[in-house]
Amino acid sequence: MLNRIGIEIVFIAAVAALAMPQLALAESGTYEAVYAFVPNYVSFEYNNGTVTAGSNRGTSTVIDSTGGLFVKGQTSGQECAILAKKTAAGINLDADCTVTDLSGDKMFHHATRRAGEATQGSAGGTDQIIGGTGKYAGITGHCNYSVQFVPDNRGVSTSKCQWQKP
Question: What percent of the chain has pLDDT over 70?
Fold first, then answer.
């Protein structure tokens, strides 16, 4: 009986030892970033509302971080393609964004907003991290963001994100 218990303990220890490297490789953390951008949109009337489409480009800077993937002060280029539809019920917005860091690695986001006014003042929504290349390969997560449009056709977005990698 003691031999059987000893064998079971050795088996459990072996399984745990094999699983530990996989657990050790998993990463997760949080980061906050500020994205300053220049929008390039076109808008027109459509079906009792307004459709806005276009892009924005700018820089994203990490202002706070936990976990090793994002470093405070890290600046990256960011560009987004945007489609927004405004009706009496509010604004539905979808944006696909690529963040490219200084080493050329890319992270992909999909942002949505289903309520709020974004033509003056500020608005917000959610952002899904959906993958990437290089060091961002396999990354997933989510962010909450807010946007403020400022004079001279400029915008600033802040985001708080949680991320994980396998």
Answer: 80
3 state SS of 166 = coil
Fill in the amino acid letter for 21: P
The CA distance from 42 to 24, in Å, is: 48
Residues 67-80, mean pLDDT to the nearest whole number: 95
146: which strand partners? Answer: 124, 158
**Do the Cβ atoms of 164 and 25 come closer than 8 Å?**
no
- Identify the domain containing residue 108 by its residue range: 28-165
Q: Is residue 5 part of a domain?
A: no
103 domain residue, yes or no: yes
Tell me what pLDDT residue 124 has. 81
Q: Which two tokens stand for residue 14?
A: 């072996």
Domain of residue 43, CATH code:
2.40.350
pLDDT band at 11 (very low <50, low <70, confident <90, very high): very low
Cβ(112)–Cβ(144) below 8 Å: no
Start-to-end CA span in the chain (Å): 40
Amino acid 114: pLDDT: 80
Top-confidence residue, 138 or 88: 138
Rg of the chain over all Cα atoms, to the nearest angstrom: 22
How many whole angstroms separate alpha carbon 108 and alpha carbon 97?
6
